[in-house]
Structures are given as C-alpha cells and as structure tokens.
Amino acid sequence: MEVEVKLRLPNPESHQKLSDLLSPFLAQTLLQENVFFDTPTTALAAAKSALRLRFYNLDSHSVLSLKSKPKLSQGISRVEEQEEPIDPSLARSFLTDPNALLELENDSRIMQRVRGEFGVNELICLGGFKNVRGVYVWKGLKLELDETIYDFGVSYEIECESKEPERDKKLIQDFLRENGIDFNYSEVNKFAVFLSGKLPT
Question: What range(s) does the CYTH domain occupy (predicted)?
C-alpha cells in the first residue's frame, strides 16, 4: 500500500515560490513521461486500476506499474501499487504495439494479474502526460514537487510518501502557510485528471 500526502498548488507562481524556498534541499530533478494502457472497453479503469509505463529522464530507465483501488481524502492518498523495472527500448515498443505487453505474462507478475485477475486479452494505448518532478529532502521527508503537463493544461502538486501521513501533512501545511503559499487538498489523482480531460478547479 502506497500512502502519500498530496496537496495541489493553484498556479505557477505558487509552484515557483515553493521551488525557490526548497532549493537548498534539492536532491534531484526527474523528467517523467507517463503512458497508460487499458482495454477498448476500459475494463481496468472500471475496476479502479491503472496500467502505466513511466519513462525517466529521456529513457534512462523505465518502470511498469499497476495501481489499484485508489482512495484520496483530505489530502491523503492510499493506493495498492505494484512496480517492475522494464527495459526502456522494449517499453517504447509497446506504445505502438500495446498487445505485445500481454506477451510478458511469463516474466511479469503485473501482466499475470492483468491477464488473470482482470481477464484482459486486448490492450490499447490511452496516451498520457509528462511530469517535471523536483525531489527534495526536507526535515527528514522526501518531498516531490510536480509540474504536470497535460495536452489540456498544466497543474502543480506537492507529494510526500509517508508512514505517518497526518503528522507529515500538518508539517507541510504549516510550512506552506508560514510562507504565504496557497494550496488545496488534491481531490483526484493525476490519472483521473488525464481521463477527465480537464484540470481540477
């Protein structure tokens, strides 16, 4: 189970201000490309699951993931997550031949689940979005500051994977308030925003 604090920033000015404040704590910047797959009848989405390929820093590496049963309330996200590394050149080939993903069944527990648990025998590529993620080590936490670029606009969010989400949410909120940075609780995850075709309001 992945548990994260997720707070949405309203505009690029808030994102820039927070980025400047956190700059002494910057550990790395990641360029991410996220691409999603489902059946032609969106069986995975109907089962509250998402099959994703994520490419990092111009294909330096890539990861196949299956996320299921997401719950997001009061700025705290809980989701079942399974991840596997995958060769970037192989992963790229699935963008034009999605059904070839199903042939990984013998080597991938994720694709075994997709085949067995969800009964999937055909996949299509849904497209996706890009994300620029600043990773900061701040007060013992790993903060991830995201600028997410959809075809229909750009959104901004700060995330923090946490074993004590209520405590860490308060710490982050207090920091934002002390520095005059507006925020809201994230109400939907990035995949749901992508599927909706519009930015959260």
Answer: 1-198
